[in-house]
Amino acid sequence: MNRPKKTPVRSPKWDAFHFRLPDSRDQLRLIELFKRSGARTKTEYIRARILDEHFRVVTVDKSREDFVRRLTEFTAALNKIGVLYNQAVRAINAYHSVATAKRMLGKLETIPKFSSDCNSKPCN
Predict the structure, then answer these.
(1) Which of 63, 76, 80, 122 has a 20 to 30 Å separation from 70 between CA atoms?
(2) Other CB atoms closer than 10 Å to residue 45's CB: what's the count?
(3) Are the C-beta atoms of 39 and 45 separated by less than 8 Å?
(4) Which pTM does this prediction carry?
């Protein structure tokens, strides 16, 4: 039995839009606005502009970025010191008495690198 061949149904091309920006200044401005918008694709950005949807403009403040980076590094270093201190205290409490800990601390302070005098003068 021969069935008639079905022709595929094609959607109309009315939903495809193409436009040009012949002026290079307009092109550069569009690219700059796209980069600042935070949109993932150019299509998403253009659609938001045409349909008057809300979108965000991302501005990068270099000084704030540098401050946040340095603050993050400081926080990480402080956390590292706390972890190391906690490990040392746990080891002393687990394996040594208070007298042994004081004796070990006294030996440690005789080493110039670890003495408390390092705050007032440079240590090697």
Answers:
(1) 122
(2) 19
(3) yes
(4) 0.40
